[in-house]
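Reopening this one. Same input as before:
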Amino acid sequence: MMRERTGYTLTEILVVIVILAVLASIVVPRMLPQTEKANAAEGAGMLGAIRQGEMAYRLDTGSYLSPGSDADWGKLGLDNPNNLATRKFDYAVDGASGTATATRVASGGTYAGNTITLTITGTWGGTHPYHPT
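Same output, byte for byte:
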């Protein structure tokens, strides 16, 4: 009497692995931009907070601030966003115009160096492909 075999053959397992690899090769490239869109949204959110701080600072002092030190960022009501170890952008403000700029850090891969800008009047711009419009 022959014993009944249970389990999967090596061929069946390899076929499943190939199917999963094909599906992954289709899905992964479509999902990668979503991560950068989230990073750009994070940068845009911080720029919005900086703009609000600059507007409040101007009401008090009559001018915009170019924050450099932690104390300067505190005058805008913010912690220095450039001190975060996991930051995705470097933030700067042009004190003459009140325009805030977020520049993607080097770890951003192909997006490194791209910028998102927000003027004091609320106009978005920059070179980042996912900057708000």
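So the earlier flakiness isn't reproducible anymore. For the record, Residues 12 and 65 are 66 Å apart (CA to CA).
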